[in-house]
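Data card: per-record layout.
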Amino acid sequence: MPLPTVDTKSDISVIHLLPNVLTICAICAGLTAIRFGYQGDFETAVRLILLACVLDGIDGRLARMLGCDSPVGAELDSLADFLNFGVAPVLILHHWALQDFRSAGWIAVLCYTICCVLRLARFNVNSRLDKTDKPASDSGYFIGVPSPAGAVLVMLPMFVSFLFSDLPIAPPAVIATYIGVIGLLMISRLPTYSFKNVSIARKYATYLLLGAVLMAAALLTYLWATLVLFSLVYLVGLARAFQLDRKSRKTEG
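The structure for this 253-residue chain is written out next.
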């Protein structure tokens, strides 16, 4: 009696599942961040959102390195981005500072979340159609603020509060307005720099590695101060990009 044959096409290497495992871990981090936020442990909640950002930066690159990127993985990553960067940060912010602002605070939350899902939908469609919203090798730019960067920027008031614990929290109206502005930046046509295609001369690689080590050390040692600094630098870069974009439009006109 012949032995049954094994359909090897149905087999998959365990290592090829690792990117999806990281994406699911990011989802777990985002959900757990919401839990800690509603329990009042806001610092832990924010740290979990930051962990989700790190995992988001790893899973896609790992999938491409292993040659196992798939439509399922891409959809899973997009859903994780919406939860971790479009829902969790603003729910935590709402519970942190907007509880007494009633309807206006919730409108700001809805504005940010809808902007995030529209930004992700636009990016996904244009990526499939290979249009300009996908960072091309010759452009090095995103169109609008990416959702992970938006999540970090929208939590800037919390970073400042954690860094300067003696200062009062900003007025709810200011925080709600800020949330709405960050949401609009995500769906804007503003070109924002993408670091995915950055290349440097080989002779400077050592300095880049040293800078990465120092950055990691700063994040581990002075987390809130480093995040405040990074967020402010990013906002200044956005303002500069806005000026250059307006100038280029006037030149073309």
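Known properties of this structure: The beta strands are 141-143, 191-193. Confidence is low (pLDDT under 50) at residues 131-138.

See the next section for split statistics.
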